[in-house]
Each structure stands twice: as structure tokens, then as C-alpha cells.
Amino acid sequence: MCVLAVLARGDSYAYQLVSTLAETMEISEGTIYPLMRRLQAEAWVSTYLVESNSGPSRKYYSLTSAGRRSLLEMEEEWRSFVSEVNCVLGQQGKQNTGENP
Description:
Elements: H1 2-9, E1 12-13, H2 14-22, H3 29-41, E2 45-52, E3 55-63, H4 65-96
Antiparallel strand pairs: 1-3, 2-3
């Protein structure tokens, strides 16, 4: 979901994806390539090559319309999950209020 969310902001190559995600979570370059292959197999991303002046061409990933739909579904599921967890945590806090440990 996080990779799809980053790609929703704009096309990117794998190292750039890792760098962006690494700002807020732990992720390694070694995990991104298998993930990108799976996303491509699901037709959630497409690829294209861009010539580079400083080395070989870079493979860019672009979110497809199917990928955008999947991202929206994942976001909805995530928000529902977070809401449910927050309810449980809120109930737990109410149960512990005023009671001896």
C-alpha cells in the first residue's frame, strides 16, 4: 500500500521509492525489487525506461488505473482497521481508569 501511495504522487524508479519510504519506515533496496515484480504481475504498475546521462537507463514505475483502484481499497481497509484498533484501545483505557493495576 505504501509503495502504491508513493507512486500515486508520481512515477519513480526503485531506488527513489526506497529512499522516499526510508524517510518514515524501515525498508531495504533488496525488498523493493521482488515487490515491484509482484505489483507489475498484478498489473498495478507499469514500467518504462528513461535514458540517464550518468549510467544505464532507469526503469520507472507508474501506477495503473487498476493500481489506483487497489490503493483506494487498501486505504479504506486500513482506515477501518485503525478505527477498530483505536476503539479497542479506547475501551481498554476506560476499563483501566480508576482501577488498581
